[in-house]
Amino acid sequence: MSPLLSTKRLEQIVGAANVSTEHVDLLCYSRDASENVGMPDVVVWPTTTRQVSKIMKLANELMVPLTPRGAGTCLSGGPVPARGGILLVLTKMRNILEIDIANLQALVECGVVWQDLNNELASYDLFLPPDPASGEACTIGGCVAECSGGVRAVRYGAFRDWVLGLQVVLPSGEVIETGAKTRKCVSGYDLTRLFVGSEGTLGVITRVRLRIFPMPRFRLVMSAYFDSLENAGQAIFHVMTSDLSPSAAELIDRHTVEAVSKYMNMKFPKCAALAIFEFDGSSLGELKRRMRQARKLCEKENATRIDVSHTREESNRLWRARKSCGPALASLKPSALHEDVTVPTSRIPEMLKKIEEIAKKHDLLIPTFGHVGDGNLHPLILYDERVPDEVKRAEEATADIFRAGIELGGTLSGEHGIGLSKAPYFSMEHTRAEIEVMQKIKIALDPNNILNPGKIWIGT
Amino acid sequence: MSIRLPEELEVEVYRCFRCGYCRAQCPIFKVKQNESWNTRGRMILIKSLIEGNLKASPSVLDRLYCCSLCKACENSCPAVVRLYDVYERVRECLIEQKLGPLERHERIARDILAEGNPFGQPRAQRSSSFQRKDSRQAEILFFVGCVSAYRKPNIVKSVEKILTATNTDYTTLGARELCCGSVLMRTGQIRAAEKLAQQNTRLFKELKIQKILTVCPGCYLTLKADYPKLVKDFPFEVLHVSEFLHQLLQKGKLQLTKQVELKVTYHDPCHIGRRFNLYEPPRTLLSSIPGLKLKEMPHNRENARCCGAGGGVKSAFSETALKIGISRMEEAAQTEADLLVTSCPFCCINLTDASHQAQLLPVSDLTEIIAEAI
To answer: Which residue in A24, A115, A134 is closest to B63 by CB distance?
Structure first.
């Protein structure tokens, strides 16, 4: 870090209680939920946009790297300070500023926890549909910066589809407001979409104006068990291409079912794959019709058993199990690469087959689950970081999975972001010209490259 | 210097995936808002201690001892890592390596070994609020516990009133009763706890009792889960007063006849709640009191928020314990209850302190309300 940046200057901005250079704090803020590590030189907790602006200005003047961070539940290393410097922890900016029922909007500070917002919205029979698995802990700012999705993205879309406008602090310290309070807006470039998913590399998002939605009156959940992963993939594909519009269409493979049964103390029938569908809406009769239709499609793909959750508790339990898949699996081995490769829905069965082949080829356990309804898979590459040969095989398998996904017309990341984890593979998906466009945008906004350097592409 | 955990617990440390879901649960994190005071942070620190990359500095010790062992993190951990066991064992390891405990906890141990209680008050005063002071042979031993004996005499009176009214054949150890050792177990001072376990067990055996009744969840946890490991032969059934009174209610021996016109909310103590799932007995008892209305807080049963006192937190980090207590009492106040009832003398103390500080509703132990209703 620049010798010119004394903690005193930061303390003058945010107060001594909101600055730490204690080794224990730096260590605990050196990680997110991925395998990446990066020690900050100083951790700062601003409480206002004005403070963020002053810190940015200071960092820019002194050319000190600055990495924004929410709850640090990221799975790609986004909030890991790869080049040290200032770690800007935004969790103390957690006010819900406005819930505008008439216009179905909410204005929140970036550090508001997803679950807290949804609890508040629930009292008005409203909700924010994109639902990352880490919802109880993650912040809205983090969700926007990483363009998170979740199980309901299949019907409602990811965060990108729910952000109307942003307040962003640029590396220069200037504060801009993007978007509008209106649902439609074609007034100049769509800066909102530029910042959504920019992984904290272009500006620090301090406020978010979100669209919100009336809570559906009914939700029905159906689980279908299959003897083969491919059959489950086919069944989901057929449901997605009919007029049934499920609000979730998830797939969980055998290894994941076993891990979740072991740790969550839940009994599942023996199967090669489990598909979970959710249907929501205001008419129970209509929902039941859609579910009957989905049931028929699953039966056609030789489902061995189909269960319907009759109570909200049963559904919640099932969703809780689903949201535990990643952590439950990751705990099977000392290390895990948690991927989110995404392919066009029609290529799901092929992609599932390829992942199985890649696991076999590299002699690794690669359990897979995910939001198959929108083509978003979560293969988890399990290995032991203490065994060099396993590390090598895990890296090779990761590259193979990405290559296969891209060959099928897919993308490296559906919802976790590129961060540090996928930066080495970025050029697999994008041409030099495409990357140059992105880099020009980066330089235009952050000429000194102080904001979250080292992310997305290698060499910056 | 690195710490060494038993293999089965070291594996647990490595099973933590750093997903951070514990942020939503940890009561200490809620107050501190700093990852190093959260379960995920503590696991990062413990891993570094195991790998020898971190010195057990006073800052590190503070993080590892400032945990009330409430199990809220473990309850919500999607990988169900045995966090509670890891924390207790780490504290034990720190002592083995002469790196722990905290000075405050060491002083408590000295007081317990000298006077038999963590407050360092004279041994002879222990039974001053007991109605039945002389030990005699009986089926049930009412193990009063230090907090009730020295700080909450009305709880002792209430329990004895109920036991007498229900013709329960019981005795106490009088002034011979020693601290159960809960605070020592929780702070890793296992050798000192072992001594107490042996001495107390000897007294239990002398009296030829069959069952031990505790009013304090800390005593309950220690006698029920730790003593059988600390002493070879521990043939006693340990009952918490809430489950015992529930049994009496079911058998018709406990008659709750007096009207208690109150709206109350119930706070689940962590050591009988998440640890032993004793969620319903206290609620059934409260609901059986004529006139009493029970209104739940949003966080109840397995999702109950901790009061902030346990695990040695109140003694060594009193300000943090108080802040956590205030946040729990604010949740209670939102139910518009007249009174918060809990089933733990130690929760009672911390929540009462919090309530005084923030001028919120009063706090009572379950036994005090039951005693009023008979």
So the answer is: A24
